[in-house]
Amino acid sequence: MILNAGNNLNELENQLQLSEKYPFVFAAVGVHPHNANEYPDLKAEQLIEASRHKKVIGIGETGLDYYYDYAPRDLQIKLLKEHIKAAQETGLPLIIHNRESDDDMIAVLGEAYRNKPFSGVIHCFSSSRKLADFALSIGFYISASGMITFNKCGELREIFADLPLERLLVETDSPFLAPIPHRGHRNEPSFVKFTAEKLAQIRDIPFDKIAQITSDNFCNLFRKASDKGRREYQSE
Known about the structure:
By secondary structure, the chain is of the alpha/beta class. The chain is built from nine helices and seven strands, in the order E-H-E-H-E-H-E-H-E-H-E-H-E-H-H-H. It has a seven-stranded parallel sheet with strand order 1-2-3-4-5-6-7.
């Protein structure tokens, strides 16, 4: 299965058309923090309405990016909170982007979670062990990208070496972060194999096992995409 995460609402129709064309493609609805300036008045209700489509299985990607700072930080936080509200209302998992914003991310997610729990994933994880431990404490999953194959990412591999197996996911972050041996080229979904192989090596378990574990974890988190979830949705 492929999850096509959202960057902005203008592209949502294309996402949905693609998901309707291919049974194995699903969508998430959201506004990336890089695009926050385009949606200063975004409300959770807009995301909730869009999520009613049968192939929308998550909310996001959303989050904070203090590396590029393409949008004011207070606006990024405002939009993140709206996405959290949508996740809390719909029960769909949140897809979190985080870059150099660990403390604010922990504060925002923690406050919201104490008010009303929700599920989610720190996607394309490249942050601190502090954030990883916090994410696990609220039941989140943590997703490995091609970065774990990069030579200079030893510290990141150390974090993935002891995360709970039942909370691991793998991803491409296409078209970015192509794993070795394709680093520097456009990433694509088929390259997820190389990330999974590296994760299996890090954990010292067979590739087939890590493939099964991360596939099962995907369906456990994104329940609407599971066979059971699709049957329940269609019966409503």
